[in-house]
Amino acid sequence: PPRLSEAIAATSLAAVRIPEPKRFALHDLITIVIRESTQTDFEATLETNKESEFDGRISDFPNLNLRDLLNFQLRPSSMSEGEPTLGVTYEGEFTGEGEYSRRESISGRITARVIDIKPNGTLVLEARKFIQSDKETLNLVLTGMCRPEDVSIDNTILSSQIYDLRLEKLHEGELRRTTKKGILTKVLEALFNF
After folding, report:
1. Residue 41 in this model has a pLDDT that exceeds 90
2. Nearest CA to 30 among 100, 111, 124, 95?
3. Contact in structure between 148 and 21 (CB atoms under 8 Å)
């Protein structure tokens, strides 16, 4: 909207002056209200059947005599009891089902600083938070870009208003180690994955 002229503002008692847009400089601080949630669901089913049958007959078979073997000789067997036969039947069936569901949400407030201002006025923000309690550590890093007019009058902005939002949450400690799979579990899953 057009700005109120100085003459009207000086003489009128009812005129309301529109506040000037807030200007930001490098290293200014802005509070980001984080409200992010993700939900992922996957489901898969696989069913296979395989059947194989082999029949064979041995018409010639060497006579395995120790004396002939020592002389490096092989003589045909007489096969007095008839030709041996070989039959193999294989039947396999596999049914596999998998379901994966993950829901994650994060909320909170974190203060970011302006690390760059683009020529068009877009602000580049970076926020870092490090929390350590006993042997548990939480490292939170947030980066992104926003428009100056999206920053509210109380100097806050929602995480949904940030472009190219990148939020990294790294948790280390005993609690994190207990949720990881052990070496034996990983080996058994690799061996019996089929």
Report:
1. no
2. 111
3. yes
